[in-house]
């Protein structure tokens, strides 16, 4: 189903004059919203194993009400002219719809050719056309307004996503964040375009029809009114049931697609672990559960149509029977009877939409709540603070402590100085907090206590944008973006580097040879997350990118996984080129790196337990000596 066309059908149902076909069950009125997001409460346990301690639970946000919904929509500034026009047209079409039965009555009662004037026919035609054209055009306008709302909401969310700090991404699963952008915005739009206006005009037309019915023949109307509580007695429980199933389906779909996402993106792990059978079972179980829910939804939905047509048929029989008697007794005219039947439709059809409307309404409130929750998250302020032109002064840590999300302290009271132009190697057992220290230097997180200073000035006083622009970070896994090698080398660089610059960076990163050997050279697609390149190649692209950024402070997280010795040597040489003349902090896993370093910090369980050169530490620090012998790699000497 397309995003833009699903509005017309259900809206039209509510406002059309005489559509004797039973209303479609609520199931079919649903806009195609893929995999509705899991709220924090219903989210699957995070399968791609976020680091322990990162899964802090969200405080339960207060449930969004219609006021929040209205505010959210108002903030997208829907075009006023269009909205007014759409509303006016809808109302006009509704009023025209109310006039049509009356006009028909005139037409029928005057039904003898002699008295049938052209004016009569023209008038009726005008009302028909007004109703149809008004309905169509207002549908179109509503679709435009709906698209405006979705686009503005998505823009806001996207801006938000780009400004959200790293801790937000620690707390939330990718799929959850993505569905906020894609499906929640659609649900919000769906309520406006497909349901809200249709519901309101439907109620107006029902109320109008009721008044006109009473005027036409109050006795017959009162008899018919008995049927309304009857219909409500059927529709309300059905609606509640539909609502419950819809919610269960939403949660199940969210869990299912989250699971699917994890399995598909980690298919290599699945295969390497021989977990195909297990995943197959789990996937199939999810599919079956969705099927069962779908069947239940179908069963409930199947009752809706027949209930409505049964009510309509019963009423028709009663009206035609009783009305026929009154026509033949001369109490009412044949035209009255026809008008009566037509008005009846205008009452029943909107009423049958009530259940659908409330299901959609609840969904939209849920979506509003989730969107508002995300919009309320604090942002990083990129531009705020001093502009940092160069970061070529000493960087000092004083009493630096940090724990993720207020959890266990990971870094405890660190103190060190990074001299400009020098290389500091950080070594220590896995999980000691080395990468965490880099995250603090990148200002992904704020220290819990203590400070980081650049030339005596807290680094927090510089604008994030200018601070990070001075840093080149080559991460442990050398992540790449889908795109070409050129895209990846120039990623985040605003200016367009010349072809020579690009080649030079690739040469210094020892990446030029393998790039030239690729059939498409710099235009080679690297695949999702750079999957089509080897680990060593990815690292060298990462190094080339860092070279192009020409940073003052270089953060290198050497890969923990060993490359083959040949690749290891070229990566090592590339890193050597990169470090030249820069303040460098390197998390070292290679002996050659620590031997050449100006100072080494030995980080254990969040504390610095040893510092000095390789020789000094070998002599003074027992654990370092053991670590250097057992853990640091010694690639064959470059030949
Ligand atoms: N985003 C995060 N949220 C919560 N805890 C985290 C997060 N990242 C890391 N940790 C925890 O912080 C501790 C230090 O992790 P860190 O990645 O800094 O270790 P490391 O010294 O770099 O280890 P390795 O040598 O294995 O790379 C670990 O206990 C880890 O579980
Ligand atoms: Mg690490």
Automatic annotation (TrEMBL):
Topology versus the membrane: Multi-pass membrane protein
Subcellular location: Cell membrane
Gene3D superfamilies: ABC transporter type 1, transmembrane domain (1.20.1560.10), P-loop containing nucleotide triphosphate hydrolases (3.40.50.300)
Pfam families from the UniProt entry: ABC_membrane, ABC_tran
Start and end residues of each stretch annotated as Disordered: 1-61
Keywords: ATP-binding, Cell membrane, Membrane, Nucleotide-binding, Transmembrane, Transmembrane helix, Transport
Bilayer-crossing regions: 81-100, 120-143, 196-216, 222-240, 298-325, 337-358
Presence of keyword Transmembrane: yes
Listed Low complexity bias regions: 14-33
A GO cellular component entry from the record: plasma membrane
Domain ABC transmembrane type-1: 84-363
Matching InterPro entries: AAA+_ATPase (IPR003593), ABC1_TM_dom (IPR011527), ABC1_TM_sf (IPR036640), ABC_transporter-like_ATP-bd (IPR003439), ABC_transporter-like_CS (IPR017871), P-loop_NTPase (IPR027417), Type_1_exporter (IPR039421)
Chain ranges of the ABC transporter domain: 395-630
Protein name as it appears in the record: Lipid A export ATP-binding/permease protein MsbA
Gene source species: Paenibacillus pasadenensis
């Amino acid at each position: 189903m397309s995003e833009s066309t699903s509005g017309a059908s259900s809206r039209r149902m509510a406002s059309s004059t005489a559509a004797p076909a039973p209303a479609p069950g609520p199931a079919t009125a649903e806009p195609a919203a893929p995999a509705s997001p899991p709220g924090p409460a219903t989210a699957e346990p995070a399968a791609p194993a976020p680091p322990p301690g990162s899964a802090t639970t969200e405080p339960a946000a207060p449930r969004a009400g219609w006021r929040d919904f209205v505010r959210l929509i108002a903030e997208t500034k829907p075009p006023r002219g269009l909205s007014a026009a759409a509303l006016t047209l809808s109302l006009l079409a509704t009023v025209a719809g109310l006039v049509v039965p009356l006009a028909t009555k005139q037409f029928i009662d005057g039904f003898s050719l002699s008295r049938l004037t052209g004016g009569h026919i023209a008038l009726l035609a005008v009302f028909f056309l007004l109703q149809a054209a008004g309905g169509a055009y207002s549908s179109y306008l509503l679709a435009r307004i709906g698209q405006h709302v979705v686009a503005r909401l998505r823009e806001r969310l996207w801006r938000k996503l780009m400004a959200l700090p790293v801790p937000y991404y620690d707390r939330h699963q990718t799929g959850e964040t993505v569905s906020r952008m894609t499906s929640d915005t659609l649900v919000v739009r769906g309520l406006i375009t497909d349901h809200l206006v249709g519901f309101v005009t439907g109620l107006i037309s029902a109320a109008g029809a009721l008044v006109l019915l009473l005027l036409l023949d109050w006795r017959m109307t009162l008899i018919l009114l008995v049927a309304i509580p009857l219909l409500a007695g059927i529709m309300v429980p059905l609606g509640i049931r539909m609502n419950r199933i819809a919610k269960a389906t939403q949660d199940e779909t969210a869990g299912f697609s989250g699971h699917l996402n994890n399995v598909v993106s980690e298919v290599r792990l699945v295969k390497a672990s021989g977990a195909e059978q297990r995943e197959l079972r789990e996937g199939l179980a999810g599919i079956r559960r969705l099927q069962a829910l779908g069947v239940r939804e179908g069963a409930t939905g199947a009752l809706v149509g027949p209930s409505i047509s049964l009510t309509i048929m019963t009423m028709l029989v009663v009206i035609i029977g009783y009305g026929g008697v009154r026509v033949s007794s001369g109490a009412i005219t044949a035209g009255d009877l026809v008008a009566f039947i037509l008005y009846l439709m205008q009452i029943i059809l909107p009423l049958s939409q009530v259940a659908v409307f409330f299901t959609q309404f609840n969904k939209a409130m849920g979506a509003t709540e989730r969107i508002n929750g995300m919009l309320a998250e604090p942002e990083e302020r990129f531009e705020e603070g001093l502009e940092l032109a160069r970061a070529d002064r000493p960087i000092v840590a004083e009493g630096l402590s940090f724990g993720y999300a207020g959890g266990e302290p990971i870094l405890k009271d660190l103190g060190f100085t990074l001299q400009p132009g020098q290389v500091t190697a950080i070594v220590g057992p896995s999980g000691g907090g080395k990468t965490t220290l880099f995250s603090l230097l990148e200002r992904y997180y704020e220290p819990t206590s203590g400070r980081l200073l650049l030339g005596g000035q807290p680094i927090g006083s510089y604008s994030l944008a200018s601070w990070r622009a001075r840093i080149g970070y080559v991460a442990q896994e050398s992540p790449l973006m889908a795109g070409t090698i050129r895209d990846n080398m120039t990623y985040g660089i605003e200016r367009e580097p010349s072809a020579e610059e690009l080649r030079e960076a690739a040469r210094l990163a020892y990446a030029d040879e393998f790039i030239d050997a690729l059939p498409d050279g710099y235009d080679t697609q690297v695949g999702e997350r750079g999957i089509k390149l080897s680990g060593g190649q990815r690292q060298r692209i990462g190094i080339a990118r860092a070279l192009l950024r020409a940073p003052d402070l270089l953060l290198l997280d050497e890969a923990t996984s060993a490359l083959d010795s040949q690749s290891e040597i070229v990566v090592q040489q590339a890193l050597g080129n990169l470090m030249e003349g820069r303040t460098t902090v390197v998390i070292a896993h290679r002996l050659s790196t620590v031997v050449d370093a100006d100072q080494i910090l030995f980080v254990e369980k969040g504390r610095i337990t040893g510092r000095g050169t390789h020789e000094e530490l070998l002599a003074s620090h027992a654990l370092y000596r053991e670590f250097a012998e057992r853990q640091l790699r010694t690639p064959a000497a470059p030949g």
